[in-house]
Design brief:
Two copies of one chain form a homodimer.
Chain A (H helix, E strand, L loop, with lengths): L4 H16 L7 H7 L7 E2 L6 H16 L4 H6 L5 H12 L6 E4 L2 H12 L3 E6 L4 H4 L6 E6 L10 H11 L3 E5 L11 H10 L5 E5 L27 E6 L12 E4 L2 H9 L8 H10 L2 H25 L5 E3 L6 E6 L5 H12 L1 E2 L1 E2 L10 E5 L3 H28 L1
Parallel strand pairs in A: 1-11, 3-4, 3-5, 5-6, 6-7
Antiparallel strand pairs in A: 2-8, 7-8, 9-10, 10-13, 12-13
Helix pairs in contact in A: 1-13, 3-12, 5-11, 12-14
Pfam family, one (chains A, B): Aminotran_1_2
Cofactor (chains A, B): pyridoxal 5'-phosphate
Enzyme class (chains A, B): transferase
């Protein structure tokens, strides 16, 4: 990729910012503070349903801002963990004592890995890095490398055999997986649960499950109700992606009663904030739930359209995904970090390189689906960015 | 106290609610959900500066609501822990690597006690219960019982001797203390730090320090800048009380760099929410800081006035306090739980019984100072409630 001198300074700053953020992308507030010269038009790094955000804001305006209830949300202590769990219990049809409320799913990941993983954890890679980063000293990590030849999807039989061989006390499945969006069908997850009954903790992270489906009615498929039957199952659910409210920090875990009790016994008392409590109360209401589900399906359909259009673009390979993002491999010798910088500087589109993801071989980016209008702009920008690169390379070759 | 049959049902429900909340008071949202028949006019259970809440809301309206930036706060991931620490560092004149951002001070208490307390902790009682509740299995708790005869204030020499005798690895000082508001002067805390250099962790919880002072200019006195010199010092700071934003969940800890690093190494990445990040950015701004300090002093002066008026009331003993609340002992045979119920049912004032506080001998309530107008209403209500009780008792006696 070609950069002007001015652009190169931005590329350098971008690199520093990324390094400071470790194995995650710098957030948009950090970004604005440290790179004010770049205007982000579209944050396609950010994996959320924008229509759900709008729906939440509609309710929030009407019920919280216009009524003046915002003062209470800011000023007063939120309810305790178990009180919020009770609110969700009826809606989810789950025993409230099996629900643990988290300050974002990440807090639950941390709590579970710190408290219940004892000796050995098996993690598929590529994956969401916190699962291996949060492992405590002395815990062995066994990686199950997903195969590029199989588009980084899970080979269920091979997986079961590997777990039986290594005997970890904790295994982690993200379904659909991040960063590639590969989905494990319910029948396969159930087979894993049946075969691996001896594993102490089977963590299934369903943070992107609202975007997956098994039939054309796009019905939601979740394991949340299987905890009763499989007490080694721990379902972790972020609300940030499906509901587009990452700033609120809301998530929950479904796990056996003893685990919830153990966590609450000496901690996690007021770990929700006022807005998160309002969100959870809303989430459990049927009027909101019905309107949300329409937007969930709308977003799935548009994401499918977006992925179809991405597949038409040259010089990239789009991996199969059942999430609201796609893993894209850059072919034709393009460097991911340079492509990300170019797209940001020229088009104001912020996407994620996957350079920091262990288990990926090649130049990869991860791209989120946004609103239809934003997706159209992303497609146009990617197209001209990819073609421009090809033209410049041609000119270069002739100059030589 | 006398109750009608209808009131007795409320008294019973109140008792259940309190039991469910454990050693804390049920929050106001829980309260409204479970006891809708009672209208809380004044939450005097809630220890915060209401003028600071108003100031925050003024900024929040102008900068977040009117500009439409609220969407970003709700939708986007907040910045990482270390980024927010950097924002505070300059304002506090502290090395950013010594700052750990918490989802409320309670998260920091949990993190410190879980990670750095190894064998033995010494805790003054009465105190904020989480300090002993969060202790992990296998850790010994030594209680230092504060003396009623000395109004539950700390006897510094006796304390130092006791720590030297028991050799705990962690000691906790809440300054001013909760639930009584007793203050330890800077010179005494410094003496403790000097004498107890061998203690691994000296936790000083300054959650109420903004309401204390050592001279008539009401200047803020804090240990935050002593961590460099005393690496065993851990200063914990809630923002909920002084800034009146408990619903936002914001707090920070100042501790040696290795501790912050150890916590961030495998956790606490996105533990602030969007509103908390906005709050922290505001907190570090001089325009906000200057306006806030005027309100801090205004509130201190009004609280002093409130305490003076409370001292005029019959049948109670008001303990000395340098916080924004007072511990009150009910004399004349009044039961704390009944008094709290009566005040709630008849006057809509919600206060805290201290029945669950270990280390208190007698019938105690804790009463927060609110706005001057609310304080006036509280004084009037307390007065008639106490006098009415006396009159009814007299009638009773005559009837017998």
């Amino acid at each position: 990729m070609k950069f002007t001198d001015e652009e190169l300074i931005v590329v350098k700053k971008l690199e520093i910012l990324k390094n400071e953020a470790g194995s995650h992308s710098p957030g948009i507030f950090t970004f604005r503070q440290k790179l004010p010269e770049v205007e982000i038009k579209i944050d396609a790094c950010f994996l959320s349903n924008p229509y759900a955000t709008e729906l939440f804001i509609e309710y929030f305006n009407k019920e919280i801002l216009e009524t003046g209830k915002i003062r209470d949300l800011l000023e007063c202590y939120p309810s305790q963990n178990s009180v919020i769990a009770e609110i969700l219990a009826e809606f989810l049809a789950i025993n409230p004592k099996q629900i643990f409320i988290g300050n974002g799913a990440i807090e639950i990941i941390q709590a579970v890995i710190h408290n219940f993983t004892e000796k050995k954890i098996m993690i598929n890679i590529p994956t969401f890095s916190s699962y291996y980063e949060y492992v405590k000293e002395g815990v062995e990590v066994v990686y199950n490398e997903l195969s590029k030849a199989e588009d980084y999807s899970l080979d269920v039989e091979h997986y079961i055999a590997k777990v039986k061989f290594h005997r970890p006390d904790t295994i982690v499945l993200i379904n659909p997986n991040n960063p590639n969006g590969a989905y494990i069908r319910l029948v396969d997850v159930q087979r894993i649960l049946d075969e691996l009954w001896f594993v102490k903790n089977i963590i299934v992270d369903e943070s992107f499950i609202h975007f997956a489906y098994e039939n054309k009615s796009y019905q939601l498929v979740s394991l949340a109700n299987l905890v009763e039957e499989h007490p080694n199952l721990i379902v972790i659910k972020s609300m940030s992606k499906d509901f587009g409210v990452a700033g609120i920090r809301a998530g929950y875990g479904i796990m056996k009663q003893e685990y919830v009790q153990q966590l609450l016994n000496n901690g996690y008392l007021w770990n929700s904030n006022g807005l998160a409590e309002y969100f959870f109360r809303l989430y459990a209401r049927s009027d909101f739930a019905m309107r949300y589900d329409i937007l969930r399906v709308k977003y799935i359909v548009e994401t499918l359209e977006f992925i179809k259009e991405l597949r038409q673009l040259p010089y990239i390979k789009v991996y199969p995904s059942m999430a609201n993002f796609v893993l894209i491999e850059l072919t034709n010798g393009i460097m991911a970090s340079e492509f990300v910088a170019k797209l940001l500087i020229t088009y104001g589109i912020y996407i994620r390189t996957c350079d920091d993801k262990i288990g990926l071989q090649g130049q990869f980016i991860r791209l989120a689906s946004r609103s239809r209008k934003e997706n159209n702009y992303i497609i146009e920008s990617l197209k001209s960015c990819l073609e421009m690169n090809f033209v410049l390379d041609l000119i270069d070759e002739r100059a030589v």
